[in-house]
Amino acid sequence: MTAVAAPPRTDVVALARELAPAFAERATAHDRDATFPHENLAELVAGGYTAMTVPAEYGGPAVSLADLCAAQQILAGACASTAFAVNMHVHGLAMIARVGGESAGRACRAVLDGAVIAGGFSEPGVGGNWWHPTTRADEVDGGFVLNGRKGFFTGYPGATHLFLSAAVTDDRGLPEPVAFLIPKPQRGVRVTAEWDAAGMRATGSHSLALEDLYVDSRWAVGERGALPMLFMLGVHWAWCSFASCFVGIARAALDHVVETQRRRVISVIGKPNAQLPGIQFRIAEMAAKVAAAEAHLDAAIHAEHEDVDPLTHYVDMSVMKTSVTKLAHEVVTLGMQVQGGSGLASGDPLQRMYRDVVAGLLVPPATDVVLEWSGKQALGVPIFAEPRWEG
Ligand SMILES: Cc1cc2nc3c(=O)[nH]c(=O)nc-3n(C[C@H](O)[C@H](O)[C@H](O)COP(=O)(O)OP(=O)(O)OC[C@H]3O[C@@H](n4cnc5c(N)ncnc54)[C@H](O)[C@@H]3O)c2cc1C
Q1: Which segment of 4-8, 47-51, 189-193 scores lowest on mean pLDDT?
Q2: CA 307 to CA 189: how far, in whole Å?
Q3: Which residues make Cβ contacts (< 8 Å) with residue 378, sequence separation at least 6?
Q4: What percent of the chain has pLDDT over 90?
Q5: So what's the pLDDT on residue 6?
Q6: What is the pLDDT of residue 57?
Q7: Distance CA 372, CA 388 (A)
Q8: Residue 202: helix, strand or coil by DSSP?
Q9: Which of 28, 69, 217, 316 is most buried, by the most CB atoms less than 10 A from its CB?
Q10: In this structure, which residue's CA is closest to atom 30 in ligand 1?
């Protein structure tokens, strides 16, 4: 385990505020060296943060989605990589818990004991189309043998458990996606590339090869073929948590730029940059976009999540994530214009935020797929009709 977990806390927003200053201080070095923030994760486990989505029936604090998102925004403002890595864990567990049954009980007990989950659904061969895994799960006595590749496995260096997908072959010879939650294995998983990217550099989003990885059948999460439904019904946990990371970066960028421009005096102007109309207009635009992003996220957090049509629910949450991350990217881009050349210097955290926030446009769900589904839904065109571009 990463660390011994403390009794779960319900005040995760206060906990995030306590931990954020130290995370912010360590962020520069982890970003520079592309090192995984193990000490941050250990503090999150020790403080009970990682247990926040354990439901009450399993002895957890059952923190609300609103508090999860508020806490994640605070962490993201300090160290977006840490927030993004622990996001995989908190929302992943919420989705597993929602499925219920033995796998949920096992996962929750492990997390209360300090376990940390990383999730791997995208693959080099399918990109973000992760309802169609090319990783194969061949049935053997008592379980499955998995072979395939996983890209972008965020949080892998700090994980004790892996939540991943593979396809079994059904009676008709067709692939059925299955999710598994497995203790991080000693054998059968090889890191093929360590994460070294332009943004989210401290997330340890390694690429993996699964090579004859034995998986016990009791580690399956939900029924065979149930993976798409598992995602659709629990998607508010995922996309609200994802969106929070990028809203958190945008809010931190705005605060940082405001603070800098109030202090900065250029001799030609002779007074603080804050007096310049161009600075004022862009700050106003940034603030409006942050408010729009926060409002859209808030509406998604407080929308109906239980009595829903699964597909409509999935599309609504996906549209929110798409629009919020686009706004967040625009906010930080405007911030760079306000800050000027010094914003690009390695000593200014804004350049890290600029590189981190772009990940929001790339992480799931794939923007074009969301726009297609949402547009088709609005126009009354069946989403899954084939061929795809004709009615
Ligand atoms: C920092 C970071 C961390 C990540 N962490 C994780 C993780 O922990 N676990 C995980 O599973 N994944 C993770 N991902 C991967 C992410 O989930 C996406 O799957 C991945 O970025 C998309 O794959 P790709 O970039 O190869 O793009 P592709 O999926 O190949 O997409 C490339 C382009 O094609 C478009 N496109 C793709 N498919 C379609 C389609 N069907 N219809 C129309 N247009 C399409 C996309 O919109 C995009 O513009 C992470 C990504 C990033 C950037």
Answers
A1: 4-8
A2: 39
A3: none
A4: 88
A5: 60
A6: 95
A7: 10
A8: coil
A9: 69
A10: 127
Spell out the domain ranges in the chain.
Answer: 12-116, 120-221, 227-379
> Could you tell me the distance, in angstroms and rounded to a whole number, from the CA of residue 127 to the centre of ligand 1?
5
Cβ density class 10-40: b for 16+ within 10 Å, e for less: eebbebbeebbeebbebbeebbeebebbeeb
Q: Which CATH architecture has domain 12-116?
A: Orthogonal Bundle (1.10)
Residue 177, Cβ neighbours under 10 Å: how many?
Answer: 22
Report the distance separating Cα 213 and Cα 217, nearest Å. Answer: 12
Distance CA 54, CA 160 (A): 16
The predicted-structure confidence for 96-145, as pLDDT tens digits, reads as follows 999 999 999 999 999 999 999 999 999 998 887 878 899 999 999 999 99
The preferred substitution site among 205, 210, 356, 372 for testing ligand 1, maximizing ligand atoms within 8 Å of CB, is: 205
363 Cα–ligand 1 center, Å = 6
Q: Distance, CA 200 to ligand 1 centroid (Å)?
A: 15
Neighbours of 62 (CB within 10 A): 16
Q: How far is the CA of 132 from the centre of ligand 1 (A)?
A: 13
The pair of three-digit structure tokens given for residue 351, joined into one six-digit string: 């350049």
- Is-contact 203 190, C-beta < 8 A? no
Instruction: For residues 177 and 228, give the distance between their C-alpha atoms in angstroms, rounded to a whole number.
Output: 8
Six-digit token string for 248: 């958190």
Query: If one looks up domain 227-379 in CATH, what number appears?
Result: 1.20.140.10
**How much is the average pLDDT of 22-38?**
98
Has domain 120-221 been given CATH number 2.40.110.10?
Answer: yes
Tell me what the mean pLDDT of segment 209-214 comes to: 98
